[in-house]
User: Fold Beta-phosphoglucomutase from Aquimarina addita.
Amino acid sequence: TDKGFIFDLDGVVVDTARYHYKAWNRLATQLGFVFTQEHNELLKGVSRKKSLDILLNIGNITASEDQKQQWMEAKNQEYLEYIQKMTPDEILPNVPYILKHLKEEGHHIALGSASKNAVQILQKIMLFDAFDVIVDGTHVSKAKPDPEVFLKAAQEMNIRPENCVVFEDAVAGIQAAKAANMYAIGIGKKEVLIAADEVFPDFTTMTPQFLGAIWNVPKV
Ligand code: G6P
Ligand code: MG
Assistant:
């Protein structure tokens, strides 16, 4: 078909936020300040570089670019240790079913993630082959809320942006999807993802009927 479905990775396909948290939290502890789960919410969907800047801001810490680079590398080393242990059991509920359904309907399926570790994660959870197109943090220069990642995915699928649906758990990701002129489905809380066209708590309550009706303009 001429429809494309773009999945964010972290928080949509897998719950890696807790691994990011553990790794960032170690750095914050080393630097001598408290980094809470609430603070961690601010890092969702945000690039590694921007995440560090937000973290340092919370701790009221300034540092040279070299120092920041070292901290990012140390954080990522720890994060990679957690990722190495991931298995397909960590795929969030109903995601495989939705992917299978969309494929059967002949839709194009893409990954649109800010992560530079996306391919490794997909391999660990055995979903690498489920996506026709993968656009991740290694392919883009502008992080969400910039629409670059999603526009690139649409382009590689050869689908017009207005014929794309994005699944996103982060505020910055919903903003990016709307800036790309796509239909944005939030995965999470309605009060948080206010700019989304529709919000589901997770994939277990999302039906093929709902997905099939997205482009049916209601008759007035
Ligand atoms: C996702 C996560 C963010 C993370 C970013 C970069 O968007 O939601 O929390 O900072 O990816 O991930 P990376 O694996 O490249 O450090
Ligand atoms: Mg996410």
Remarks:
- The beta strands are 4-7, 108-112, 133-135, 164-168, 183-187, 198-200.
- The chain has a mean pLDDT of 95.
- The chain is about 40% helix and 10% strand.
- The longest strand covers residues 108-112.
